[in-house]
Structure prediction request, 251 residues.
Amino acid sequence: MTLTRQPHAGGAPWPRRVVAHGGFELRNLIRNGEQLLLTLILPALMLVVLVRTDLIRLDTGGAPAIDVAAPGVLALAVMSTAFTSQAISTGFDRRAGALRLLATTPLGRTGLLGGKVLGVFAMEAVQVVILGGLALALGWQPNPSGIAAALLAVVLGTGAFTALALLLAGTLRAEAVLAGANLLWLLLVVGGGILLPAAGPTRFLPSGALGEAMRTALGPGPSGATWIALAVLAAWTAVFSVATVRWFKWE
Prediction:
């Protein structure tokens, strides 16, 4: 009897591993009730409250309330997914040792981070479909000329807030990340210029810049204010990315 050895199929190509991990991250976000509350249910409720009730009066400058509220809610959804969700999940993965173990697999550290970013973008696509659909049903008419600038704002905002999330998760204890991420999210929602129009110095916060870029791009259309906000977001993305590379600890 002769035994023939079958050649090993080998590992999947690196891009496929990253896509698979991105799908894993997306499924974790969707299955987590707390994350769904933060990333979809609360933004949807805020949109309805701002447009259909008088609990919060928006300074719209004569524009329909939905034209101010809808871009702000989309910006809030981006921040919630890229920052709060990622900070908390990464912080507890780091405490459990999951990050260290995954980094030693064929996925590698770059693949692990790439999969996380891919999962964030996939979740944001789900948010845009659901929250954008709700806003359209409430009468929103986004400016088509600003869609490209708004997409650029989403990419830069995702980069800035994901880098900030990893910076917190990679330098603080998990319990401190949980408390700090939720507190910072609340402060930015209330006074960070993301949900409501930014004023003064808040325009130069990452939250204020993201909200301003979305509102100006999808409202009156791209202008000088839009490009300034995008430049601010790009600067924050660079600063947070450099700090994360410098100080992030895997265990």
Notes: DSSP finds nine helices and no strands in the chain. The CA atoms of residues 73 and 97 lie 35 Å apart. The chain has a mean pLDDT of 88. The radius of gyration is 20 Å.
